[in-house]
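Appendix B. One record, verbatim.
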Amino acid sequence: MPQSASVRTQTAAPTAPTAADLLDFVRRTAADTELIASLPLDPEGRTWLRLDGPGGSEAWLISWPPGTGTGWHDHAESVGAFATASGELKENALAVRLPASGWKTLELNDGVDRERRLGPGDGRAFGRHHVHEVLNESADTHAVSVHAYYPPLPLIRRFSRSGAVLRLEQVERPEDWQ
């Protein structure tokens, strides 16, 4: 009589999306012209639509009226990506890893500033504690972009900047955005 074998199957835990996965998602989503056209544009302020991101990520479709921006901020422990669907966005970023906590004011070294311009279809991914600001510098054209973060944003730290001095101004948590 043959012996029966016990077979144990394991279900692999879902893998967290990487920054590259998020970049692929935001680029594909930014190319969805029907979705982009569905976002209402407000002449005064940004509008947004929550999207289903890959692997449990948090994703947003965001409009940027002329002359608007985010101010300096980071996304804490989340990795992320964004892509421009229409118009042009400028990203100013710092090529420095900031301490996760325990500071209010930092003096930045020379050479840490980075600038990118992202037109339709352009995107970029970033790691944890990436400090940047995103701007629509156009005087007359809306921009629209897609953003994704994993894990979903635990908090956003907002900063002010005066020359080489970066100052922590506020820590926002998801309950603050409701």
